[in-house]
Amino acid sequence: MKIKIGNKYVGEDEPAYIILEIARTYENDIEKAKKMIKIAAESGADAVKIQSIDAKGLLINNEKNKEYYSKLKKLERTKEEHVELMKCCKENNIEFLSTPESFETINILDEIGVNAYKVASLDLTYSKFLKHMARKNKPIILSTGMASEEEIKKAIEVIKKEGNEKIILLHCVSLYPPEIKELNLAMINRIKNFNVLPGFSDHTPDIKASLCAIALGAKVIEKHFKIDSGEGSEWKGDYDVAINPEQAKELAVYAKQLAKSHKSIKELPDREVERRKVRGRKIVANKNLSIGDEIKEEDIICLQNLENLGIDCDNIEKIIGKKLKRNISKGEILEEWDIELNR
Asked: Per-residue DSSP letters for 23-43?
């Protein structure tokens, strides 16, 4: 299965698609966001993602929430600012993605030509929201934090009923950060059974879990990204689970290397084939044998020889009962031309 996002394919036989999330770590500073986009592109990442915040479409504005509501308002971006960031991404040959937080921002992202949507874990159970997004007929990258397996299956069904089959499901633990014992990376294999592309939204502070996820078959990795320590930031929690440019480069390199290790069939590399020829057990005479003798099982043994000579041990059944064409000494390697194989 493959899904196209912009000019890249995601899925089978492709390297894991790396998304770097800068939503809070660009600190509401468009110029800093542009700098981060450039660095992300240089790291080898495939996409940069922000959040398209619409505070009134996300959070109740009351006395209890007013402080957090005010923080969210700072993160709102105009349509023109979205276009500006998207243009910067195009100039740096990296995909621009966003997580819309309201129906209005779904529409804005569609209007500016975003190539895929990212859905936050908290919106996985908001069926009306998913339906509206699915009707845009663009790939949907769906995080699954805090959701039960039944809720995940229902979300997939909701999207597919709208005629949209382009779903990437990110295993996610919505803790910042989760402990290793809480990661449950085996869920990536479960996701494969849902007939969607599997991925991993990683909230750990380094890249180890992401690399494990890729090895398990994750086709998309989402990681928070930073270019400074964020000391004093009101979004320090995002910095604590974000990777720096060097880690991002390392992740992108390993993603490409690991892609070459994924085969749908058992296939030996050329170097392993050569090693097998030398290291594999060969058929050896277990005693002195004479020309014309019929080979019996007790007449032979299989031993390593450390060079590419002789008959591989898995051919024993083919030579039992065959006659020798010459005298063979104990410990001597048998070759095919020593045996009347056509009898």
From this structure: TTTTTT-HHHHHHHHHHHHHH
> Does residue 314 share a domain with residue 184?
no
Domain span at residue 248? Answer: 7-259
Number of domains present in the structure of the chain = 2
Q: Is 316 found in the same domain as 202?
A: no
CB neighbours of residue 160 within 10 Å: 15
Whether residue 196 is found in the same domain as residue 223 = yes
The token duo for 330 is 């104990």
pLDDT tens, 87-133?
999 999 999 999 999 999 999 999 999 999 999 999 999 999 999 99
Long-range (24+ apart) CB contacts under 8 A made by 261-265 are 261/215, 262/13, 262/217, 264/12
* Structural domain includes residue 311: yes
Residues 27 and 67 in one domain: yes
CATH code, domain with 117:
3.20.20.70
Number of residues that make up the chain: 343
Residue 277 and residue 247 in one domain: no
The answer, yes or no, to whether residue 264 has pLDDT greater than 70, is no
The whole-model pTM stands at 0.82
Co-location of 199 and 68 in the same domain: yes
What is the DSSP pairing of strand 117-119 with strand 220-225? unpaired
Catalogue the E-assigned strands of the chain.
2-5, 8-11, 17-21, 47-52, 95-100, 117-119, 140-143, 167-172, 197-202, 220-225, 242-243, 282-285, 300-303
pLDDT band at residue 343 under the 50/70/90 scheme: low
The tens digit of pLDDT for each residue in 318-331 reads 999 999 999 999 99
Q: What is the pLDDT of residues 214-263, one digit of tens each?
A: 999 999 999 999 999 999 899 999 999 999 999 999 999 999 988 776 65
Helix H or strand E encompassing 91: helix 79-91
Spatial contact of 59 and 72, defined as CB atoms under 8 Å apart: yes
